[in-house]
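W.,

You were right to be curious about this one. When I first looked at the sequence I had no strong expectations either way, so I just let the prediction run and decided to look at it fresh. Below is the sequence, 225 residues in total, followed by the output.
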Amino acid sequence: MKYTYYGQSCFLLEAAGKKLLFDPFISHNPLAKNIDTKAIEADYILVSHGHGDHVGDLITLAKQTQATVIAMPEVIDWASKQGVEKVHGMNFGKFTFDWGTVRMVPATHSSGLPDGSYGGNPAGFVLEVDGKQIYFAGDTGLTIEMKVLADIYNLDYAILPIGGNYTMDVDDALIATKYFDCDNVIGVHYNTFPVIEIDTKAALDKFKRENKTLLLPEIGETISL
């Protein structure tokens, strides 16, 4: 399984012969200026919520790749009105695709779409694919509901926001790993804006002291999971 980071909360998972793109926000992110969006391929695009820094390139990339968009019904309706044809609306439940299973789980955040309309419930995803279980929390604060995941899954990786202000920070993310019992974390949603800038060395050191792994790939970098 491969993970490619595109900045903010946008990344690509390559697994089970499919390319799964999450929360596409690239062209409006100065930190991702070297990413060529025209070269991105995807079979599915998964969207956690409707904020602009998660759907900024959704319409363009959905049309370019002809990927199926997986998101809350309100986000699907918004995308469909702009000509996106391949969609799969979900809410807090799970569905088995031909490549694996997706469960949408709650996130503590808000969700408005770029046009000001309601974006539905903010969410995260748990994927079961290629023999691995991966949790992408979306934009969320620390919430006790995360403990439920430990009753359902044996998570291999958790992809967590660590920038603070709008979401969990590094300290909260460490607490979250104890809630859902996962030692391997990939950090997202940090350094894009001044209010979510972090000391990456301090973050890595905090995780190391807790005998946990924090991965912070560079924008455009691909790592193996």
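Here's what jumped out at me. The first helix runs from residue 52 to 55. And, maybe more interesting for your project: The mean pLDDT is 97.

Coffee later to discuss?

I.
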